[in-house]
Each structure stands twice: as structure tokens, then as C-alpha cells.
Design brief:
21 strands; globular; Dna Ligase, domain 1; 35% helix; alpha+beta
């Protein structure tokens, strides 16, 4: 597959999830990016983030695109997110001998290429190769070695892989729906673009995106992505527990979860009467305590799995100063303080930004995020974090393509590869 080239300032992010498809559009200008629409639709044909019925998935995507994207923009390519339990990541290292007195962009690319040559099973494909540190003549902690003097450059990278079958199934479903794919991006990386500040990345942060079928995790340290993980548990498990425990249909359980779901229940709320429709057609009255008694054990189990992943990241050198929860399920009442207690870190909800200043102005971008957190607007909902992040990612790809070949911009880019499909350059500095 060849990478589609954009010829428009309209950017489209497509988040194909287990329970919903989110389509986000944005407009790029000299001032930055403005999110113009964000809509969600029911999704079929996926289980735990993986396409299991290509025809059903393609039809879901087609219907969503027809409703969400103006007819004049449907010919544009889209940036698609990918997740699922098939995603794996591991560390690798590479090096290059410096032929001249100073490190050149070609030296950096060669070092990354050697790190990318790590063994990958035949049934897996490299999605991203993300540098985590540069070492020049034994001196580490270098982010931009270009122009420095040395003899040997080493690089440490995180390699993210996906099952070839799962990646191809997603791409084929998109193509069958009439969608032209420009880039495919790991969903927690996209969500981070929309919800995590550069300062948090530097200090150490864990992004936890709780979706319908999966929970996606990305851990950053010293500005670099250190570790990713995808857990096969999400909001659907809460809904299923409520469906069984309350003897109601799955749609009714989903309604109850969204309207009354709470991890913790105080004395004032616990006896609040709530009417629910039983699967047999009758109506019964339950209390808020009945709901929290079902939801809390599942929340504890989910957070325990997340904690284990964060502990593994700490073993690799992460110093997590904050956890950012996003995704639709992050809005469950009481989850934020409960997560803070179980994870042992400060926790906040990640509301995605909807107005991103000029991408080169990182300090302005931080300020915009702070405003979004304090005053969430229509599209600044955690359920749209991945979709908005995909739009930002696509804009960065366009910025990098514009400066491709200019060595002074090398470290405003990270090499991101999908072997045989995409060669994408994105801004990171």
C-alpha cells in the first residue's frame, strides 16, 4: 500500500473501536489546528479492538463516514488508529560509526535503521520505531545529537509491533468502506497527542485510555515513549457485569452505566431509587448502591492490571509522576480518585484539546491544553481523545513532510515505520 498524499487543509481521524467508531475532522491553518467536528457511531465486526467480521466492520465505517464527513471531503485520506491485544512492544539498540567530525542526519538514520533490524516473528509487523535515548561516545541522555562531535553514536528504541493479520484486516475493512488510509497509528500514541503535555512527558507520565473493548497504555519518560501495552479489558466488561447482575439487557446496562455508574457511593446516594427495565419486560427499582457494588470489583480488577503494567514500566526506568485517564469509560463517577488510590500516583482525566496553536509553538500548546481541562467544550470529551489525537498526528506528519530533507529539522521528527506500507515522519520536539 502506498501512502496517500494530502492536498487539503482538512484532516480526518478515524478511531475504529470495539463499541464505537469516532470520526473527527479538523482544519489546519497558519495559526494551528481547529477541531471542526467529532461524532461517534455504533461499531460492529470488532472484538477487543480486532476486526473479526470484515464485512460488518466495513459497513459500520462506511455508514459513519457518510454521516460524519461532508461529501466533498470523502475523497480525502484519513489517519486511522489501531489497538488490540495483538499489539506488543520491546526495546532494541543500534549504532553507527561517525565518519566525519560531527554527527550528521544520515548517521542518526543509520543508527535507527540498525536498531530496527531486530528480529521480529514472521507473523508480526513493525508499526513504530521510536527512539528513547541517544548515546554519543558513552554519554547518554542526548535528544539531538546532530552537530555534536564524536566517534560512535548509539540509539535505544522502542519497537511497537502488531499481528500482520490484524493490521491487514483493519486496512482492508477501511478500503472496502471506501476510505483511503494515509497513516495508521497506535491508539495510545494518538490519545497522548491530544491529552498529555510535553512537561508531563518530560517528568514521566502514564496515559491510560479505557475504551469499550481494550485499555491502551503509553508510558513516557524524559520526553520519550518508553513502553506501550494493550489490555483486553474495557468498558464493555463493566456493562456486561451490570447486565448479568441486574438481569437487564446489554443496551439497558449500558444506559445505566452512563447515567448512574459510580465506583464509590456515599450514604446520601446509596439509597437513591433507580428504575430499570428487566430483560423480561418488567420494571424494577434498584439503588445506586446496587450499581456501585457491581462496578467497583471490575474497576479494582482493571486498575490492578494497569498497575502491573506501570510497575513493569518502572522496572524499565520510568518515574511516573502522573497518570492521565482518558477514553469514554474514564468518566465513570469516582474512577479518578479511586485510581489515584490504587495506582499510587496523582491522577487526572485527559480532556482532549480542540484548538491547537501552531505546532512549532509548544508553550502555547501547553496553555491551550490547560484551558481545555478547565473549560471542556463540545468536542473536548475523553471519548474523542484518540480521534482528535489522530488529527494532530496527521498535521504533524504534514509539517514534517514539508521540511523533509532539511537537516536542521531532523529532531523535530521521529522515524515511524510500517514496513511495506508507510514511511511516516512526525514532529516530536
Amino acid at each position: 500500500m502506498t501512502r496517500k498524499i494530502r492536498d487539503s487543509n482538512t484532516l480526518i481521524g478515524l478511531d475504529v473501536g470495539t463499541t464505537k467508531i469516532c470520526i473527527v475532522t479538523g482544519e489546519k491553518s497558519d495559526q494551528g489546528i481547529t477541531i471542526t467536528s467529532a461524532r461517534s457511531f455504533s461499531s460492529t465486526g470488532l472484538r477487543k479492538g480486532i476486526v473479526v467480521d470484515a464485512d460488518a466492520a466495513a459497513e459500520s465505517i462506511r455508514r459513519a463516514v457518510e454521516e460524519a464527513v461532508p461529501s466533498g471531503d470523502r475523497a480525502l485520506s484519513v489517519c486511522v488508529g489501531i489497538a488490540g491485544s495483538h499489539i506488543k512492544s520491546f526495546s532494541s539498540e543500534g549504532s553507527a560509526n561517525i565518519k566525519g567530525k560531527k554527527v550528521l542526519p544520515q548517521d542518526v538514520e543509520k543508527a535507527i535503521d540498525t536498531a530496527s533490524a531486530a528480529y521480529v516473528p514472521l507473523d508480526r509487523e513493525i508499526l513504530h520505531v521510536l527512539p528513547t535515548d541517544f548515546v554519543l561516545d558513552g554519554q547518554g541522555g542526548i535528544k539531538d545529537p546532530v552537530g555534536l562531535t564524536g566517534r560512535r553514536l548509539e540509539v535505544k528504541v522502542t519497537i511497537v509491533t502488531g499481528a500482520i493479520a490484524a493490521v491487514q484486516s483493519l486496512l482492508r475493512a477501511c478500503e472496502a468502506s471506501g476510505v483511503a488510509v494515509s497513516d495508521i497509528v497506535l491508539q495510545p500514541i494518538a490519545s497522548s497527542e491530544a491529552t498529555v503535555t510535553q512537561r508531563e512527558r518530560e517528568r514521566g507520565v502514564a496515559l491510560v485510555d479505557i475504551g469499550g473493548g481494550t485499555t491502551d497504555i503509553a508510558v513516557y519518560q524524559s520526553g520519550w515513549l518508553l513502553r506501550t501495552a494493550v489490555l483486553g479489558i474495557g468498558g464493555n466488561h463493566f456493562t456486561n457485569d451490570l447486565s448479568i447482575g441486574l438481569e437487564v439487557s446489554f443496551p439497558e446496562a449500558e444506559r445505566i452505566k452512563k447515567l448512574f455508574g459510580s465506583i464509590l457511593c456515599d450514604e446520601r446516594q446509596e439509597k437513591r431509587p433507580i428504575k430499570v427495565a428487566l430483560a423480561n419486560g418488567h420494571v424494577k427499582t434498584i439503588s445506586a448502591r446496587d450499581i456501585s457494588d457491581i462496578i467497583q470489583p471490575r474497576a479494582e480488577e482493571t486498575l490492578e492490571l494497569i498497575r502491573k503494567e506501570l510497575d513493569e514500566a518502572k522496572r524499565l526506568g520510568a518515574n511516573i509522576s502522573r497518570t492521565v485517564l482518558t477514553g469514554g469509560c474514564s468518566l465513570l463517577t469516582g474512577l479518578e480518585p479511586y485510581a489515584g488510590t490504587l495506582l499510587g500516583t496523582p491522577v487526572r482525566i485527559g480532556y482532549p484539546e480542540v484548538n491547537v496553536p501552531d505546532l512549532s509553538d509548544r508553550s502555547g500548546r501547553h496553555a491551550a491544553r490547560a484551558r481545555s481541562y478547565d473549560h471542556p467544550v463540545e468536542f473536548s470529551n475523553p471519548m474523542y481523545a484518540t480521534g482528535i489525537g489522530l488529527v494532530i498526528y496527521a498535521a504533524q506528519a504534514g509539517e514534517s513532510a514539508a521540511v523533509l530533507g532539511n537537516s536542521t529539522h531532523l529532531f523535530q521528527r521521529i522515524v515511524t515505520t510500517m514496513t511495506g506500507w508507510f514511511q511516516n515522519i512526525i514532529g516530536r520536539k
